[in-house]
Amino acid sequence: MNSFGRIFRISIFGESHGPGVGIVVDGCPAGIPLCVDDFMPDIARRKAGAKGTTPRQEADLPILQSGVFQAHTTGSPIMIWFENQNTRSADYEKQRDVPRPGHADFVARIKYGGYEDYRGGGHFSGRLTLPLVAAGVIAKKILQQGTPPVDVQARILEIGGEVDPEKGLEKAIAAKDSIGGIVECVATGLPIGLGEPFFDSVESLLAHAVFSIPAIKGIEFGAGFRAARMFGSEHNDAILDASGKTATNHAGGVVGGLTNGNPLVFRVVVKPTSSTPMTQHTLNLRSGQVEPFSVKGRHDLCIALRVPVVLEAVTAIVLADLMLIAQQRPMCLPHE
Amino acid sequence: MNSFGRIFRISIFGESHGPGVGIVVDGCPAGIPLCVDDFMPDIARRKAGAKGTTPRQEADLPILQSGVFQAHTTGSPIMIWFENQNTRSADYEKQRDVPRPGHADFVARIKYGGYEDYRGGGHFSGRLTLPLVAAGVIAKKILQQGTPPVDVQARILEIGGEVDPEKGLEKAIAAKDSIGGIVECVATGLPIGLGEPFFDSVESLLAHAVFSIPAIKGIEFGAGFRAARMFGSEHNDAILDASGKTATNHAGGVVGGLTNGNPLVFRVVVKPTSSTPMTQHTLNLRSGQVEPFSVKGRHDLCIALRVPVVLEAVTAIVLADLMLIAQQRPMCLPHE
Amino acid sequence: MNSFGRIFRISIFGESHGPGVGIVVDGCPAGIPLCVDDFMPDIARRKAGAKGTTPRQEADLPILQSGVFQAHTTGSPIMIWFENQNTRSADYEKQRDVPRPGHADFVARIKYGGYEDYRGGGHFSGRLTLPLVAAGVIAKKILQQGTPPVDVQARILEIGGEVDPEKGLEKAIAAKDSIGGIVECVATGLPIGLGEPFFDSVESLLAHAVFSIPAIKGIEFGAGFRAARMFGSEHNDAILDASGKTATNHAGGVVGGLTNGNPLVFRVVVKPTSSTPMTQHTLNLRSGQVEPFSVKGRHDLCIALRVPVVLEAVTAIVLADLMLIAQQRPMCLPHE
Amino acid sequence: MNSFGRIFRISIFGESHGPGVGIVVDGCPAGIPLCVDDFMPDIARRKAGAKGTTPRQEADLPILQSGVFQAHTTGSPIMIWFENQNTRSADYEKQRDVPRPGHADFVARIKYGGYEDYRGGGHFSGRLTLPLVAAGVIAKKILQQGTPPVDVQARILEIGGEVDPEKGLEKAIAAKDSIGGIVECVATGLPIGLGEPFFDSVESLLAHAVFSIPAIKGIEFGAGFRAARMFGSEHNDAILDASGKTATNHAGGVVGGLTNGNPLVFRVVVKPTSSTPMTQHTLNLRSGQVEPFSVKGRHDLCIALRVPVVLEAVTAIVLADLMLIAQQRPMCLPHE
Fold first, then answer.
1. pLDDT of res. D177
2. CATH architecture of A3-326
3. pTM of model > 0.80
4. In chain C, what are the domain boundaries?
């Protein structure tokens, strides 16, 4: 389904070239100050326009259609709507029978029997990350009300193997190709004990949310894949004091599925944009032949560049839900 | 929560040193042949006993307490129960105030206010993977009824950096330490279009389930983290025919969150067993001092060795749920 | 939460005097013909304007914002939006401190700490039944595709104790008061076996959905409360043939929580509109005194008159979900 | 599914003539004192043995298989198991082809393709209310920790139209038939604002849970069906003071789907036991003929007699869940 969360619950909808995209945020507490301006910084961070991003320009102005009154949340569902304006659907009509490699065109056509909105990826489009960013802004507000406030920050670790994103991007430009990257996310200020063992482990919930971001193909916590070559005595984080602070953070802040009071640290890999300027080959469903193929439409060269704010958003959404859930365990008086 | 799945839904319970561990499987179709013998091969694969695994020996005999009648599933919830027999809880009483590094001892104590069953990790124990394996057996039976049958196989890729698990294990034995590893899982025979875009993407659901297995700290699909250094023209899998078959499988069988008809391929990293024979340091909660610490109890040297069958189980559980869900989209007549 | 359903899942949002009201319908199969005109007959049935209904007139034009392409459903979430146009919020500003008896004003103020949108009941308003009716139209389309088609019809049984609604309404007009009523809903064409024992019984799911309609205070199936005075030999419905047809229908078409192949029959009671023209008494929160109170705003004299189409809608929503779920039990081959 | 609840979540399993029946209670806070003796009073209230109840006698001893340690809840799932001992399954084998009128025999056979456990109703049996009562005991403990404590009490209002249950039962005995009844449930001490508008209204959740009890065919809150003949000025409950206390309680303590600080009051109708001593007629599936039929097995004459404690249990389960959810709305500072 297109919903996620237990207490703080989001539902997304919309298509790349339809009337717009939007989200319903249910379960948000009443009384949080909220206005359109609050959304603009994160929306700007997600926006295209920089080198390597799509030339499609959208106003991306959030319209608060419900759940906000007198500049505060009311406790009722918040619906945020973004109109699509700068669509050029004709680009897509032509390539209806030529599923783009790396895109959902082919699988969507099979799954929905040909009824899918195929223009620009339709509901599968990265444009759906815009309402996710908007919900993330609300989630961050909830996290900032913690004591201490919870802070979530994501940044690019490498593009095309280069620590300097500009260098990685130059590689792609030189090769006339798209390129992948790695993004890291860190959350600080989390209390001990968020999450549950097994199916609601912090890792389970975060991974679930993170893989809903198009183009993400892997996630690792703390030492991650390096742990495969570590000894237990290396990997274990020695507890230093009663706050749970550890000497190292190979666990990435999660033990037994629960936050342990140290920074939550994870990394994701973003595949190269499927729409590369290079000529490729794919099946023509009408002719039944594999044919050369060139991308139509306007696209990012490196989608990883726009991922950090989306990654922060889904992380904040998961953590806000866990923070709200955590407030309902009152009969747990300390035991000697 | 301790439940997972939408149609085929599991709920686990139990503790390492309590009366036993178990699982309820709800939403299983009626009419599937099922008896105790069906469970034994996978249970045997999970069992301890080989070099590098814990000397704790349990009978691990599944007791079918409900939902099975005349050797077939009835459509009602199936409860499977495993008694604990070979417990030596006294080992744990002594170390109550000394949270083991890498384990959930400390976070559980904070989260549950000291009321948690701390013996052998309690509800956080890897012993809870036993009922997961049992549910996996039922899920595999559902998958085998597909046309073609869906097959799920996991295998160890490396232990401590060695492709030969024996060599990796020897490293650990020589170092008197525990060691990590990487496990790969492949599912074949899947139809096109399982999963949903965004929150019910195949990657989201599998990652969610996989991170419920203790000790797993990362997951990657297809090319995974290597995608960060690939160009789009390299990573894209060219579609070759109307079955969706692609020339390469860098996507790991999932595009746009949906299965694409190619083998589903993903890898997970298993951290080294937290209980290493090496002396470590941790906080003594009573004295408030960081003190040297030696593991009590009986443990695996390399938990990765026992992961494959558990990974198959949670994968089969997710896929069985998706297969059952997929059967309810009938109004989707092909569209020209 | 503001969501309901397992496979066919709806999420409502909006306020009486905000920008509008809407609904997201997730899990609708692709390929169902759908356009604005399809919604108009049921929307017209719900509309005000007849004797005894509110003079507030709204265009109630559904805007299909997502999930529909080329006049068919796409399989992606369908968002339907209704703008509010004819709002007169000033009526409500004045009575902020005088919670209307029978309305949610007082409890909402406490629950949301004063941040609720109090204008015209805000999110608690009966106006939210408009998007429910819209979702009901889609659900009815799914039901009509069954073999045989499933038909859902609701009608007024009595108003103010009178079988002729006009007479009951005249009573209210004469008394210058609002009045209650009883509405019956019948669904035919249902297959045997929808629903589950216990928590997903057909009665549980229908009652859950029905009590989400404002003003409904009771529900009974088949013989309902009359069963309290019946003997078992009277109440039991004798099975007559292999289609499950019974001689009587005291069970209302549901046995053991499952549909039994006979018409589904239930009745609901609708309380008199809380906003009566009569002078009442309520607490003035500012003065702390109980004071006389007269209703401001525009209201229905008998809300039951507008309930049938809403009742059909929520019934169709529940049944469509159950029909879609029922299609996923394939391994259940007949057993001798 | 066989699960219910959002935070405090129960899952039932088992069959009337299988090994036993049980329940998993997930989401229960840690630190609640709990032992076997706590369950015995409510289990005794549900027990057979009095006049008009089945002669089948079971020990009904709860076995706490997980989630309890040192006589307190641990915060992990609590599994409670009841063995079946006094089963006489041979009674049922004989009537395999003769579906009992009023029972789920026929619909279950169709739904599960003949694979259902048909002995004594199998999973549809009223014996499943035993684990519900056990979960209710835990829920009541949570409610008792409120300030003020929340109290839930159910009682028989009438049997066969007689206010004195004994008289109603005598009617049935004289008629050699089974008989129905009405049970009322009242909860006091509830805070204002539990529940949500629409799908999580208190009425929706309670009705959902209540209709999971076999034999219940109707529910009404406060004035209930009498509201159909009331004027608004009669039905409205005038608010008297800032605690929300009202002059009357026609709403049954729920307004706008939320608790309003007054006692929660609702009534349910319990149909006459389907297994009546009277000879009835039903279809013989083998012969295809409608034939006379006499009940085998041991049964209650008036199941309503055993309903009150079950009704209390499901009510307490719903309210405990809502109390736990209510504790997570902290950003809702009072607004002037």
1. 95
2. 4-Layer Sandwich (3.60)
3. yes
4. 3-326
